[in-house]
Design a protein that fits this description.
With 88 residues, this protein is an alpha+beta fold. It has a domain of 30 residues. It has two helices and four strands, in the order αββαββ. A hairpin with a 6-residue loop joins β1 and β2. The chain is extended, with a radius of gyration of 19 Å. The relative contact order is 0.10.
Length: 88
């Protein structure tokens, strides 16, 4: 068991055996993937956001609530846009 989780348990924070089952209370290991270029374990921020953060066509919206979304692709299957709204 990772030392961080052991430390949390020692403070009375329980381990959550299945955080992806709807109950996210407690401490648990965060899923990560391996960057094929560096061989380092990375999370979604490091794998996707950081490399794209300086792109001029990236817009990050915080505090927004999306009811539905639809990704648009052109005929060459290149991603072109995301539409978001409230179904009305």
């Amino acid at each position: 068991m990772p030392l961080f989780i052991q430390a949390c348990n020692a403070l009375g924070i329980p381990t959550n055996a299945n955080p992806y089952g709807g109950n996210t209370l407690g401490v648990y290991p965060v899923m990560k993937t391996v960057d094929p270029d560096t061989g380092k374990r990375v999370d979604a921020t490091e794998a996707y956001f950081v490399p794209a953060a300086s792109r001029q066509n990236l817009k990050v919206v915080t505090g927004a609530h999306v009811i539905f979304y639809r990704c648009l692709f052109n005929l060459s299957l290149l991603f072109t846009d995301v539409l978001a709204g409230d179904k009305n």
